[in-house]
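Appendix B, example 12.
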Amino acid sequence: MTARIEHSPAAGAAAAGEARPVARTTEARIERLRAPFSLRCGALLIDYTLPVAVVALFTLFARRFDANTTWFGLGLLTLGYVLGVAFAVLNLFVLTVFTGRTVGKWVTDLRIERRDGAPLSYGRAVLRHLVGYALTLATLGVGFLLAAFNSEGRALHDLVAGTVVVRRRSVARTRRPR
């Protein structure tokens, strides 16, 4: 159900042209595979559930201290909103730029990359998450469904930013004895 995007050869001695020991019968390579739509949905669910959970937890604490009448309860409620927004910004922008993953993509073992395989830059992350998600939501979520029907698994926000969501796996291939 996944399409292969590209292969990259194994690093190390094989790439440098050095002779390998005879006892070694396998060589590893990394494949970039199209991220399955179900994993992308799971990652999205995790990414949006966590900030909401932070706000909900602080709302419960604020209710305990009666947020409508006490300054402490109102402060807890405000702190919950601030922490929820801060967590969303850290997750969607900072983590994405430095690791190519959000928390949801880390849990589901997915990665956001540029279409050519290069790491995601800050500008592309901002373009993807602010402009691309806004356009995707403006289409009432139909932009998300493009990932299910696109041959590369790219949603509307991926098309806008020139990105692709992939999963990586190491594949061992056996050498034939001579």
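The beta strands are 4-8, 26-34, 110-114, 163-174. The mean pLDDT is 81.
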